[in-house]
Amino acid sequence: MTSFGDMINDATGIVYQGKYDHGAKKNNTTLSAFKLWNVAVKAAPKSGVSVAHTQTKQQSYNDKNNSMDQTTKTNTKFGWKLDDLKLESVMANDKGSIKFNYPLSKDDWKVDGEFLCENKPGKSRKFEGSVAIESPDMGNANVVANIKASQEMKGADLKAEDPKVSVEACVTVDKDWHIGFAAEHNTKDMSDIEAVVVKRDGDSKYWLGYDHDNEQVKAGCLQFCADKNYTHAYEARYNTKGEANGFMGQPMKIAAGGKYVLSKASTLNYMMEFGAQHHTIMKWEHKVDKNWKVAVNQSYDLNNVGKEKAGDAYQLGMDVSYTL
User: Fold this and answer.
1) What is the widest separation between alpha-carbon atoms in the chain?
2) pLDDT, tens digit, for every residue of 89-124?
3) CA-based angle 163:86:10, to the nearest 5?
4) % helix / strand / coil in the chain, to the nearest 5?
5) Measuring CA to CA, which residue among 233, 238, 286 is closest to residue 255?
6) Which of 57, 60, 56 lies closest to 69, judged by CA?
7) Contact, 278 vs 256, CB < 8 A?
8) What's the Cα-to-Cα distance from 33 to each of 57, 123, 254, rounded to whole Å?
9) Which H or E element spans position 295?
10) pTM
11) Which tens digits make up the pLDDT trace of 192-211?
12) Neighbour tally for 43: CB within 10 Å
């Protein structure tokens, strides 16, 4: 079944190729850090057990210092499955967490429960509980809803912030229409309000959405060409505040992305975004054998020219992964 996160995540992944954090509550307003080096090792030593380790050197623009800041991130994730209980433990350079997932109901209405405890030493501690609900077929319609409650404590003294409750829901009608809604409430104000409507046509999709907080309307499509084995996706985002700092002096941005399967081992991805300046990303992935995979990621962003130095417009990233 289709959840709110599943509605267009595949399409936005192709359109933007990792440029933005696509969380439902960020909606292309937060840039992801660019990965200069990413090394990953994965293994599944026995049924129900998995382990993955990544080390990433990344950089992002710092508005305060007018510079490109580089950091190194490490992350080790262990996963276990004991009958219906799933456990996940993460140990990273800046945080640690443990997560439990268990099906609360397997009847017509399926309900999965999840609990997360995350600790960032000296910064914050978070407790989060959620339920994922899937309805049965209700006359050519079904509902998938995710309800999450969280409490975060920040600072050296771990001062508690207001608890938050977020809701995401997707209603599927006649298998091809998806209507989604998301919002968050911190016991005082409602925020992160977003609505999306998607029409599916085979392997293609068409969508229209509105982000209330950022006053942004978005519309796009995903097209799959089976005989050539490639996928194209397009999206336009219009700022209803009317700030004319985008494409051709208008309050909008236009983006196009694609994925070409060149062979069983090689894939080529690209992205072009046009605003006040343009940004191009090209990524090539190649599976060397059943264990090794390599990738090269190039980014040319004219929005970075004149910040720290003109050379910052171009970035080159390498990715190597090994799966046992």
Assistant:
1) 60
2) 999 999 999 999 999 999 999 999 999 999 999 899
3) 75
4) 5, 65, 30
5) 233
6) 60
7) no
8) 10, 20, 21
9) strand 292-301
10) 0.88
11) 899 999 999 999 999 999 99
12) 13
Cβ atoms of 303 and 60 closer than 8 Å: no
Q: Would you say how long the chain is, in residues? A: 324
DSSP state of 311: G
Q: How far apart are CA 51 and CA 35, in angstroms?
A: 22
Which residues, at least 6 apart from 261, have a Cβ–Cβ distance to it below 8 Å?
229, 230, 267
CB 24 within 8 A of CB 192: yes
Q: Say which DSSP state 19 is in.
A: S
Q: Amino acid identity of 56?
A: T
Q: What is the mean pLDDT of each run of 10 residues along the chain (324 residues)?
A: 89 92 62 93 94 95 78 96 96 96 95 97 95 93 96 91 95 95 92 94 94 91 90 94 79 95 95 94 96 96 73 87 94
Q: Given its phi and psi angles, is residue 308 left (phi above 0), alpha (psi -120 to 50 degrees) or beta?
A: alpha
d(CA 285, CA 318): 10
Residues 6+ apart with CB under 8 A from 156: 122
- Start-to-end C-alpha separation, the chain: 31
Parallel, antiparallel, or unpaired for β 110-120 and 141-154? unpaired
Enclosing H/E stretch for 57: strand 49-62
Beta bridge partners of 61: 68
For tokens 């985002």, name the residue: 237
- CA-to-CA dists, residue 47 to 50, 82, 91, angstroms: 8, 10, 22
Q: Which of 181, 147, 186, 145 is nearest to 164 (CA)?
A: 186
Which stretches does DSSP call E strand in 95-189?
A: 96-106, 110-120, 124-134, 141-154, 159-160, 164-173, 177-185
Under a CB-based contact definition with an 8 Å cutoff, are residues 218 and 11 in contact?
A: no
pLDDT in tens, 290-314: 999 999 999 999 888 776 654 578 8
Token pair in block for residue 40: 């990953």
